[in-house]
Amino acid sequence: MYSASDFDYSLPESLIAQEPPVNRGDSRLLIVPPGDAALIDAGFGDLGSRLREGDLLVINDTKVLPARLFGHKTETGGKFELMLERILSSSRALVQLKTSKTPPPGTRLKTEKGSDLEIIGRENAFFIIECLSGGSFVDLLEREGVVPIPPYIKRDAVETDADRYQTVYASDKGAVAAPTAGLHFSARHLDALQAKGVELAQVTLHVGAGTFQPLKSESLNDHEMHSEFFNVGREAVDAVRRTRLRGGRVVAVGTTVVRSLEAAARQGDLKETTEQTRLFIQPGFRFKVIDMLITNFHLPRSTLLVLVSAFAGMERIRQTYEHAIANQYRFFSYGDAMLLEARQ
User: Fold this and answer.
1) Other beta carbons less than 10 A from residue 220's beta carbon
2) Are 117 and 127 in contact (CB under 8 A)?
3) Which of 16, 117, 165, 269 has its CA 20 to 30 A from that of 322?
4) CA distances from 118 to 84, 92, 131, 227, 271 (A)
5) CA-wise closest residue to 314 among 216, 177, 220
6) d(CA 303, CA 2)
7) What CATH number corresponds to the domain at position 85?
8) What is the pLDDT of residues 136-195, one digit of tens each?
């Protein structure tokens, strides 16, 4: 049985990417073949050399909302910072809330631009917030919100983050963090892969702020996984079926795609599914859908590092991260990528 400490590693702070590359796709790509085959240092533009006609590339079309709001408590003037976790209804949302003192239900809040909110309840560490100023919570965020760049990026969000912390194919509003493996793809890159005969399919998983939370207990079995909305539609299911029939491989762009497809296949065959998932993929998990995974380098003691270790193998991931650090790959959301091929 693995513990949280098995997924810890030391990372020089200088390797945490603070900015995206100048151009999408200029990042490096560490190719990780199965078994004991040598790791291959490449560029992201070399991805096409590892894919072949008949493969299926599955992307997550979620769109990041400007999910961070600032303001003050109406009664006391105390400042708050709000970070969306997920939308609950047109006017309600589940949020993280930073204040000097924990506010009780009934507390009124006012944003910096004058919109009114009210705390109406709690859900574990999160707060349920009602928008009182008319319109939907999404409308409020789009009027007043700030791009929620990750906490390990030690700077304020700037105008270019609104574009670069978003995939080129983002369309379904609802995420508070980007599916970062997709940030490497330009429209030209996707067109080139499709011209080669790689099929493209999409799913949706709205990434929540919980994605940044570390493992909270030493035992993996004691970790309470955050809940995220996902949708695997008929077109994606049919695309996977066609890929299997022609002998192609299913290539997931990011851990969010892995969770979506594998959650939709938990009862057996892959099926159309729209629901919340708390699926925590750990070593020993039996993958039913994906064959290859494109992903960034993940935080120590994170559920995402556990997931990639389950897919490629604990020792293989240790070797991969040691190689990446020694060769100064850039880590986390704006960092470089790796291509993991399933163990044989």
Assistant:
1) 18
2) no
3) 165
4) 14, 10, 7, 23, 39
5) 220
6) 12
7) 2.40.10.240
8) 999 999 999 999 999 999 999 999 999 999 999 999 999 999 999 999 999 999 999 999
| Domain identity same for 29 and 140 | no
Q: Note whether 41 and 182 are same-domain residues.
A: yes
Asked if residue 303 and residue 215 are part of one domain, the reply reads yes
Q: Give the angle subtended at the CA of 118 by the CAs of 89 and 121, to the nearest 5°.
A: 70
3 state DSSP class of 31: strand
Q: How far apart are CA 64 and CA 170, in angstroms?
A: 8
> Partners of 58 in the beta sheet?
201, 252
Kindly state whether residues 175 and 304 are assigned to the same domain. Answer: yes
pLDDT in tens, 258-307: 999 999 999 899 999 999 999 999 999 999 999 999 999 999 999 999 99
> 328 is in which domain, residue-wise?
4-64+161-341
One domain, residues 202 and 253 = yes
Assigned domain for 230 exists: yes
Domain identity same for 119 and 81: yes
- 119 inside domain: yes
CATH for 299: 3.40.1780.10
What is the distance between the alpha carbons of residues 50 and 340, in angstroms, rounded to a whole number?
Answer: 11
- With b for 16 or more beta-carbon neighbours within 10 A and e for fewer, the 269-294 pattern comes to ebeebeeebebbbebeeebebbbbbb
* Structural domain count of the chain: 2
Of 291, 226, 210, 283, whose CA–CA distance to 258 is shortest? Answer: 291
Q: What are phi and psi of 136, to 5 degrees?
A: -90, 165
Count of residues for the chain? 344
Amino acid at 118: E
For residue 156, being part of any structural domain is answered with no
